[in-house]
Amino acid sequence: MSRKTNHISILQFDNRCISRLRVRRSTRGVEVLAFDQERGSWPTEEALSDALRAFTEAHGLAEDQVYTVLPRHEITARIVKLPSQDPGELEGMVRLSAEEYVPYPAEELVIDLHVLQKMPGGESKVLAVFAHHDVVDAHVELLKEAHIEPEEIFLSTACLASASMAVHTGKVQRHALVNLASGGLEVIVINGQQLEYGRAVGSGQDWALAGDQADDAIEELRVEIGASLSAYRRESEDGEGVDHVYLCSPSVDVTPHAETLTHELAAECTPAAFTNTVITRGSDAVTNLPAVLLGAALVAQERGTVRICLLPESLKAARMQRGAKRTALLFAGLAAALLLALGLLYAVSVHQRQAYIDYLRGRVAAVQPRAEGIVSKQRQLRILEQQVQRDGGVVRLLASLCSLYPESGMNITRFVFTRDEGIEVYGRAKSLKEIELFAEDVGQAGIEAFSKAERSYENRTRERNATVFDYCILLPFPSDEDEQGEGGGA
To answer: Which of 25, 40, 180, 341 is the most buried (most CB within 10 A)?
Structure first.
């Protein structure tokens, strides 16, 4: 498909909203040409495909270089510290450790990473992303039916971080940026110029705070943002939390959300108006605060601070194949012209053509994982697994925990599994007595991972004119010293 312009279109879509930010390539900021959005309800893949095709035709997306964004709540992403600074080694480590973070083999995943920070001790802090092929392939197929082939597929986390850091440039210290997207919400924490935390959840809420669902939407925001900030505080190296929360959204005005959440959260909450200051021209065309799309525009122009690309290998290979065909045709035409002009140059052209084909084959072979390296790294992984392996996987532990719950009176709202540390169980109960009995049952269940169960907190609250108790039960894993002590005592 030929390109008629050199403009960039950033496209993000789901079953309820299609958004497009069109920009002109620039060396400074973002020059906006248009911001188009259509909201609706397309519950089936066929309906969404028809809506996307109509949107594409109406706004001329086929004329532009199109970049798309996948939401974080459909993808698994982790910020991890790895013992290397070599790009090849880091890529191998992330690929080999994929099954620690997702229940799929690496062959079923589209994997990418970005080095966030190189540590003084030779380690690296890395944003590792694992997207299942089904998610990416379904995304690409919808684009294909709309006659769009994306240049690249970005992750919303990287785009949010790039938009924030492009404006702050390290001057504003620790803050949280919350994006209210159609289909979910995402929270990231940035400290200076470092992305330190990210979390996202899918949601069917209408963030416009309209109708009977307004109270439910605010409550969900309060719970999820509060949980994210608490988790960040626990994971941060200095134990400090976030004092300021910024809200953004491409589809709703977040001002009323910020006003309400300021009273609900232990942090000041305001709209992330600073993200729109990255626009150097055409700001009047932009409605609301589409920080993800603005950050994606920066990343598409190689000016983003964090870059994640989830383009599947099949699409990369097809693109390479088309390039090879074009090149082969070019060389064939040149060879024919040279044959007519001078027979001697024919042999030279054939040699060049064959050399180029060999070069392409070498490139294809170079991107294939080296079998010998994989076997070596798999051996290292097995040794590592033997050193850190514990009885029972997270799914089995969750099943065991669920079996201990009473038939009524209690529920579980969140299950947090932290490798090598323990489990946090959040939920609600009708009375403190039920929480006490459940905690005792868990500790006496005869399961090693539950042996040190303890109640972290209970909080009385009101829900639908009834008193309920929020609770948290901690299940720290026994340490190596505990296991050795038990063995010596026996």
So the answer is: 180
